[in-house]
Write a structure and sequence with these properties.
about 90 residues, about 10% strand
């Protein structure tokens, strides 16, 4: 299956219980100034790995994920390009 390049990007999934714990703790912090807190699990996995893990219970639907590169230019692309360019002449 063709997939966007970002499927190779690493993420740090977090358990919902840990997320709730962080949110409850954040609600108790003083609101003196605006701050950003980044949270994540200890493991680093790609988005593609996450999608494959979710698909594992459904082997009949599982497909290979391959990041896509730039697609080749087609005749239709060239027609559209020249049509748009010709409006400026």
């Amino acid at each position: 299956m063709i997939a966007p390049r970002w499927v190779a990007t690493l993420a740090q999934p977090i358990a919902i219980e840990d997320l709730v714990e962080f949110l409850v703790a954040a609600a108790e912090l003083p609101v003196e100034c605006s701050q950003v807190y980044e949270i994540g699990g200890a493991d680093q996995v790609s988005y593609g790995d996450i999608m494959r893990e979710y698909a594992r219970p459904y082997p009949e639907r599982r497909k290979s994920l391959q990041p896509s590169g730039p697609r080749p230019i087609t005749v239709a692309d060239l027609r559209l390009l020249f049509h748009r360019a010709s409006r400026n002449w």
